[in-house]
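ok, trying the design again with the full structure, not the truncated one.
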């Protein structure tokens, strides 16, 4: 019985240690994913808009009722358009992707390596654009968000991309 208790204590310690090691990444996931979802849901329960940015009121499910039950709200039309767009888009992408894959695997296709390389551009481009947005939108000395926060805190501007260490 004492051996069993010791084994359970060891399991609990291992379990606790694994959660402690995972805590920073779980906190980051909560901050980046869960918080925006919950905040967006909260905003959907208010009358917050451009005219009521600071002085909004909680109106409950009124926005949902207006969107779902008011015939001229445009929500149902937008939902239908979105569903149609998604279905057509997925069908066309699947068909074209299948045809392109078949064509690129043709045995005597000239310049097949060039074509395959060119097909990688749409896959790589969003990452490149994302890097540019971080560079301009976050780390820019004059217009970047981080420097705006530093200025709001009364600290001076910092050139994050000036040297390798800061970058």
């Amino acid at each position: 019985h004492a051996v069993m208790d010791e084994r359970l204590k060891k399991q609990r310690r291992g379990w606790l240690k694994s959660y402690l090691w995972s805590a920073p990444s779980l906190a980051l996931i909560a901050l980046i994913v869960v918080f925006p979802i919950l905040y967006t849901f909260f905003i959907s329960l208010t009358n917050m808009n451009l005219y009521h940015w600071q002085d909004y009121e909680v109106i409950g499910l009124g926005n949902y009722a207006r969107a779902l039950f008011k015939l001229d709200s445009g929500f149902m039309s937008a939902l239908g358009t979105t569903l149609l767009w998604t279905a057509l888009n997925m069908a066309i992408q699947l068909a074209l992707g299948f045809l392109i894959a078949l064509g690129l695997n043709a045995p005597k296709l000239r310049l097949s390596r060039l074509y395959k390389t060119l097909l990688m551009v749409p896959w790589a481009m969003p990452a490149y654009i994302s890097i540019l947005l971080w560079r301009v939108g976050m780390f820019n000395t004059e217009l970047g968000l981080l420097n705006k926060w530093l200025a709001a805190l009364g600290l001076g501007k910092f050139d994050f991309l000036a040297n390798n260490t800061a970058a």
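Keeping the full-length input from now on. The mean pLDDT is 87.
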